[in-house]
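re the bet — no i am not wrong, look at it urself. input seq straight from the record:
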Amino acid sequence: MPGSLKVLACYLMWAFLVLYWPLFGAMDPLAVLSFRIIFSMLFCLIVMLILGQGPAILALMKDKRQMLFLLLAGITITVNWGGYIIAVMTGRVIDASLAYYMYPIFSIVLGFFIYNERLRPLQWVAFVLAVLGVTVPIIAYGQVPVFAIIIGTSFAFYGAIKKQITASGMLSIFMETLMVVPVALIYLVAFSHLEGLTPRDILLIPTMGVVTTVPLLFFAVGMKGTSLSLAGVLMYINPTIQLLLGVFIMGEEFTTIHAWMFAFVWSGVALFLADTFRQKKKKAEQTE
């Protein structure tokens, strides 16, 4: 399977997860997040042991610098998944969709502040339009689109942190989840109320590790043979499907305020993509 199809498969799986999390409606979202952390770690561990990666795990644990970045990545992706799961389980799929439209733009601006990456004028305009989109509900309702901001910015920070991690995709995911497993266990034991779990819930809980880890593995493998520009374009399939599922399947109301929010963000995305393709074409002409 070509790398681009693996990346596309990842985005499609992520998109349809909005239909998966509501299956755990009897559980509180933070308990769902905790189980997701634990079973993702266990799934990665089993696969790695089957592949004989035990020595690689031990070697990585001796690298203090890498372990620090893995801890930061684990915390950041936990915030991201937490925001996403809570949003989906509380009927805010549209906010989650908005977050992933904004993510690539936020990611590039973050690169400017953290890695001193140079931004082109159109990229700055795209960022300003995305910020304007976020401010629409603040002006209209005095409400901040909290989930959209948390999900979008945390994923951007996660990507920035991952640039410092040299471990393979599976090993990195395993260690990131392992680092936050103690917090997940403490929450499940001390704060969650699991008395109402049904037999169906008990059967479904272990699948969390598979459905959240497999897309990441497809992404990690697929990106090795996929250009960043193509991956960036394909990325927008995820929030588009989420938005359609949220409105037409899950019955969320798409209001006039939502229309203004997305109009600004989509305009920013259009400029962002236009600038990306223009730069790609310019580089291609220079190499001829």
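see?? DSSP finds 13 helices and no strands in the chain. told u. also The radius of gyration is 19 Å. so pay up
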